[in-house]
Design a protein that fits this description.
Two copies of one chain form a homodimer.
Chain A (H helix, E strand, L loop, with lengths): L5 E5 L9 H14 L6 H19 L3 H15 L6 H16 L8 H11 L2 E8 L2 H11 L7 E5 L4 H10 L7 E5 L2 H10 L3 E4 L21 E3 L6 H12 L2
Parallel strand pairs in A: 1-2, 1-4, 2-3, 4-5, 5-6
Amino acid sequence: MPARDLAIGFDADDTLWRNEDLFASMHARFGALLARYHDAATVERELLATELRNLAPYGYGVKSFTLSAIETAIHLSSGKISADEIQYLIDLGRAMLAHPVELIDGAADTLAQLAAAGGFRLLVITKGDLLDQQGKLARSGLAERFHHVEILADKHAPAYADVLRRHAIAPENFLMVGNSLKSDILPVLALGGAAVHVPYHLLWTHERTEERPPTGGRFYELKTLRDLPAVVREWAGTTRK
Amino acid sequence: MPARDLAIGFDADDTLWRNEDLFASMHARFGALLARYHDAATVERELLATELRNLAPYGYGVKSFTLSAIETAIHLSSGKISADEIQYLIDLGRAMLAHPVELIDGAADTLAQLAAAGGFRLLVITKGDLLDQQGKLARSGLAERFHHVEILADKHAPAYADVLRRHAIAPENFLMVGNSLKSDILPVLALGGAAVHVPYHLLWTHERTEERPPTGGRFYELKTLRDLPAVVREWAGTTRK
């Protein structure tokens, strides 16, 4: 049995449940709405630019996306977009918030196995909108598997360091699992933790990075969450004094 | 000296810094924008109704308010509101997010006194938008006074119970300070904690309640935060075994 002070953090969006598919589908509908003003590539580029510019004032999440979509529509239509079309964008955003949570293959089984094995504190460590992420976790049916839920404004090394400090987790006893090298893997490796990258077939532009972690040692890459328990056993073995 | 396990929680908006004034000023501008469609009372009633209806999907905060204002403007103008006017509402929301933090009289002095006295864990316990609240705390200059910051989706008894459990604070060792009987006082008293009500001159309709806590015992009411250290001394004296 691993020591009781080992902790495993899970990213949520596109690690435990699907998320980026929904944003991609909303981008496509947005492109269709603006198609009479600009070609698809221009619309996509402008929407993305607005989203990135608005990260500083708004942060991540569906409300931010909705406001960015409205602003981009006004800009790209030179103010000709109608109030009904703006209401349509608001309705799309609300549909995103109410969308059923679709678990990633293997998420439920893997968490059940880790819980049954015992000896690990399991955390959700995600960013985005507080209410939306709490709602998704509740609807996911996975909430009871986790000892702690941390919803952060952003996931950089100081934010992880703060989480580990607050929960009295030594970095060398911490393993983070997620789909984003930038948000889930690199900052945790930088702190001296271990990390498991499980890529998702879609990755938002903002999450992309050219940086690759050194292979071996504290970094693992998996095709599916179903292979996580084996990696956790290996990691727990190397961690145990 | 009080025991080290005593903890004092502070609400933030309209307890540590001004907030409702800003929303009131935005409501007034919204009324002026819609004045050619409806009288001020109708506009105010509709905006408030939209805000309350949108609390479930959107939660609290400026982004929610902005989306509610846009939706209400479309509805009240029967779709005649222009894209430029909607952009104006987006700009108003962004101005709210960038607005300087104006401390409530006595907040800085009182926190300095409590910190100097020592022996208390000081927490911020607020609701609303994660990024916005973190930003306001950082800009307030008060952040270093606090041991923990808890930003919650809502402030009801189970949410407080969760905070106290996570920080291993016994309810009888906890004192909450805030301007809202509904969100800061009644749920904490219900859990067996103590609470200090410091009313602000404005209170959002949604925060109003007819319920009044029983006076005496674990409930205190103050006109100004400047009187808080004396109350804390009294409370700490009764709490110490």
